[in-house]
Amino acid sequence: MKKELVKFNEKILTEEALTASTPKKGIELCKKLIDNDPKNPHHYFLMANYYRNINNYKKALEVYNQCNNLLTKKYNNTTIKKYTLEFINLCNKKLKK
């Protein structure tokens, strides 16, 4: 029962993070998700997107790299892997300018 409640709360937090009214709020919610499930690359991907959207490419790159490191067979999502690598390259280009 307790595990189901945690999953339910995580689902609500994820929904709130996806629809956050501001990037700052989205980042705060993603941090909570990561605290609850630190090995889930989806949470890092979402948080990195918020950082990228506010042009904080240094932090976005850091979080995308964390996401990339967590993408294992357990979380074998080729779409996230593809976009993570694309955004890592984008952030690197932005930081070199």
| Distance separating the two termini | 52 Å
Shape: globular
Helix content: over 70%
The biggest beta sheet is recorded as: none
* Rg computed from alpha carbons, rounded to a whole number of angstroms: 14 Å
Structural class by helix and strand composition = mainly alpha
Task: Give the assembly state of these chains.
Answer: single chain
User: What's the order of the H and E elements?
Assistant: HHHHH
Strand content: under 5%
| Strand tally | 0
**Count of DSSP-assigned helices:** 5
Give the uncertain stretches in residue-range form. Answer: 1-6
Q: Which whole number gives the mean pLDDT?
A: 85
Description:
The chain has 97 residues and is mainly α. Helix content is 79%, strand content 0%. It is built from five helices and no strands. It has helices at residues 2-18, 23-36, 41-53, 57-70, 78-96. α3 (41-53) packs antiparallel against α4. The protein starts with a helix and ends with a helix. Residues 1-6 have low confidence and may be disordered.
Pick out its properties.
97 residues, disordered N terminus, mainly alpha, 79% helix, globular
